[in-house]
Structure formats: structure tokens, C-alpha cells
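Narrative of activities, Objective 1.

The group set out to show that a structural description can be obtained from nothing but a protein's sequence at a throughput compatible with the screening campaign. Below is one input-output pair from the validation batch, recorded exactly as produced.
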Amino acid sequence: MRKVIKGIGVGLCMFHLYTALFGSLEALQQRSLHLWFVLVIAFLTKPFFKKGKYTLWFDVCWILSVCACILYIFVQHEWIVSERFALITPLTFLEKILAIIAIAAVLEATRRIVGWSLFIVTLVFLVYPFVGPLLKGILYSHPVKIEELLDFQYLGTAGIFGIPLGVSATEIAVFIIFGSVMLQTGISELINNVAYSIAGRSSGGPAKIAVVASSLFGTISGSGTANVVTTGTFTIPMMKKIGYKPHFAGAIEAVASTGGQIMPPIMGAAAFVMSAFSGIPYSNIIVYGIVPAILYYTGLYATVHLEALRAKIPPSEVKPNIWKTLRDYAHMVIPIIVLLYLLFSGFSVRFAGGMGVITAIIVAQMRSTTRLNLWKILEALENGAKNLAMVGVACASASMIVGVVDFTGLGQRIGAGFMELTGGNLWLGLLLGMLLAILLGTGMPTTAAYVIQAATVVPSLIKMGLLPIVAHMFCFYFSCLSLITPPVAITAYAASAIAGSSIWKTGWTAFKIGLGAYLVPFAFAYNPSLLLIGSVWEIFHTIVTAFLGIMCLVIGIEGFLWIPLKFWERLIAVGAAIFLITPSLTTILPGVLLMMIIFVIQFKKKKSNF
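Output recorded for this entry:
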């Protein structure tokens, strides 16, 4: 079975590399073949029963059923895309059966490999068209026949094979493969040792190493959970060893790893979906994401630093040979440079990703420390395929959800209700959008949470006056932050398993540590200069005041600068942060004044203590 999974996984990766470099198939064919691969991997890697002699046969039946659904699309492709009329030409009995099987297979794979949350949400949306006529208000929808829903979901590129799955079948696939190959070369050694050299020698070194290493690792992974299990396995034990409490060590790693999804150039899978929904080139999205990502990690680094000063945490005892590390691994930066060059030179995202993979394999052969033989390459492709299976299945479910929203007109009605509920007030709209993003992200993959918002919340925010990229980035950002927001903080739970700490305590500590990040989307919503939009002067002073605001917020939350702050001093610091993070002519001066008051008070107290 292991060999079968490996063979299918390698086949999936080779298919995507070939289509990335030499041109993809027609949309429906590309997406359906991609779906076949990810569903088969899902059914083989996550069996229905953990034990039992009938398990394999049960899963084989699922796989054969999926084969029939995809094979029909290929055999009848010309008729489906050119001759039949969607929602007009009646479905045959066979097409009805295959449509039901396809929907059921995606749901079952979602339940197995993603979890119950997305399964239940998708199922609710699939049932909605038949319940909608019984509801009132914005939830009311016109009666829908089951044959129409089956037609819409199966035979075309609007349902299962919609935009989210399309992005997974092209851009996301090659970038996941790229990250897997880069990790196989041992680039994590370079990332870890560079992080040691940057931050390991200062107070609280291991915690700062976690922040720096996770930010660097995020440039190639784009996954919060992957960051935790990769960097957390060595940073969390180090943090515990020098005095950090287990739940605090786990929380630091969780927040640091979550930032991987907003760290250019890879970012998270949802960023590719954002490009498809908004029509904004991915190379532009990378640029827009630079400052928010730096603000995120600046706030986290400052939090760790102040906590280390307060608790008098010593530096790291480990002193790696950075020059040896650079000699052995620095050449693996070349694939990232090639990737960025191709992206900003106007080449397609999937071609840039495909060339990045090829470059990584070639460059890895330059040193024995990174050299990949055939078996290591196959292992990297297998790991990439397994990671892609989860993303692909989640995107298929998200496609069905978006299909229902479009098919029933629910998105437009929710948008109208959103506007009516907020009265067109941008502040209320942003607040409601934040709550919805976090709620959807509770136990649901970031991509799926973002896709639902792109179909419902984003249009409303644009109507309220936000630029399209600002509205999309706002929802994307909070979908990522849901990973550290209790009650279901996925990355915090993964980190707590490594730290051996309480899940609940780790989750709430992560929420507190990352609190500054929750203000960043509001900052660029009110001032797009943080996304590098506007004049040079606007961008400059907005970035400066935003960084000062983040620092003030961290001081207020931590309650420490040089010595502990009193409660009223913390309130002043938080007030200064709010004024500075949303700068205008009326808020900059009060913000700077409040900040200076805190610094003067702290400096005098520190001086008197000596």
C-alpha cells in the first residue's frame, strides 16, 4: 500500500510539473484529473476503518466510483463543454448517479482528511437550496430541483470544478511541491542556524529563534501547521530548557508559525485563490503582503523580547557555525531568487513554480549536504502529494460551497443584509467581517474560510468604499489569524502537543501574544499605504507610525518596558497604539504625545530604581 500511495503521489506531482512547464489541459480536464489524484490519495491514506479485513475493499469501491466519475468527464468532454446546454439539457440517469457519487466522494474525503467542521459546513450549503424556499428574509431562495443542483455541481466549472479547485489544480499544486522539495534538501538547517545567529545571543534567545526561524520558514512553506512541526520540534524544547513555561513556549511557536501564511513570497494557499477571485496578479499580492507580514513579526519579536527581560531569560547556549552552514546550504537560496525573478518578470505563477522546483533539484546537486538522489526526490514528491491532497480536497468542498452561493443568489442577499445590518458604516462592517472570518476559520482550513468570505463579505466591504485588494487582504488576514483564535486554535493545539502543555492554556496565551496582529488589518483598511499603495510620503509616514503603534500595543499588553507598568500606564500605551496604527492628521500627534508620556515615565522610574 505504501508503494501504491508513493506511485500515485509521484504521478500527481509529475502531472502538475508537466502542465506547469508545458501548458495545462482544458480547465475541466485539468481540474477533474487533479481531483481524481487527491481523492484517491485521501481514500488510501485515511482508510474508513482503522482495522478490519473489509476496509481496503470499502475504500477500493470509493476509488472505482471516483474513477467512473472522472472517466465520464474525459470521454464526454467535447459534448459537455461544446454541445450540451447547462441547466437546460436534461441529465441522463447515468449522469445523475455519477453526480451524486462525485459529491458524496468529495464530502467523504473532506470528512476523512480535513475534518468534520468543513464536512458539516459543506453539507449545510448543499442542503440549503432545498430548505431555502421555506425560509424568510435574506435566506429565502427560489425552489431548486435536485437535477439542477447535480447539473451545476458536476457538469461544468462552476460547482465542484470551480475556481478554488482550479487554483489548487494549477498554482497551489506546484508551490506545495516546491516547498516539499526545498525541505528535502535540508534548507531547514540553513533557516535554523541563520535564526540562531540573528537572535540566539540576546536575552530569551530560543524564543526569538522561533520567531525568526518561523518567519524564514514561512517564505517557502505557506503553512502554519507545517511551520509548527518543523521549527517547533527544536525551538519549543529549547525555550522550556532556559525557563519559559511550556504553554508560553508553545504559544510563541504557534503565533510565529501562523505568520507563515502571510509571509511572502509563498504565503498560504488562500493567497493564490485570492488572486483568482480578485483578478490581481499574484506578484502584486506578494508586494501588498510585505509590510503587514513585517508588522506581524515585529510585534511578536517585541513581545518575546519584553517577556524575556521581565523574566530574565538567558540567551541560547547553542552556538552553531554559521559560516559552515552558509557554505553547505546558502546555494539553496538560488531557487527562491529564480522563483521571484520569474514571478516579477511576468511569467505565469504555475510556470514560475514549476521552474522553481526544477531549479531546486538541480541546485541541490551542488553540495553533498543538499544532494538529492532518486529516492529522496521521490520521497519529496510523495510528501508534497500528501500535503496537496488535504488542500485539494478542501478546495473541492469550497468550490461546492461557492457554487451553491452563486446558484441560489445567496451571496447577493447576504451582501445586502450585511449592508443593512451595518448601515453602511465601515467600522461596523470591518468588525463584523473580522468576527465572521474567525468564526469560519474555527476548525476549517484557511482557504475554505477565505473562499466563503470572498463570495459574501468581500463584495459588501468593497461597496462600503474599500479597494478590492484591501477587502480581500482584510478577510484573508483574519482567516489566517483564526489559527490562533480560541476555542479552536489549530496551530496552538499542534504546538501544545510538542510542548506537553494544556491545549486551552496554550491557545489563550497564543491569542494574547498575537493580539497586536488583530489591529493590522484595521490599519491597512483605513490606510492602504500599509499595502504600499499611495505616494512615497504617505507610505513612509504610515509605516513608521504603524510600527510605533505596534510597539506601544505590545508594551501595553505585556505591561512592561524597562520596569512593570501600572494599569493606567498600560491604558495610555494601548491608547497611543490605537492612535498611531490608524494615522491621520488628527491622530498622529495625540498618539506620539501618549507614547512619549509612557517612555518618559518609564525612563524616570528606571533611573530612580538605580
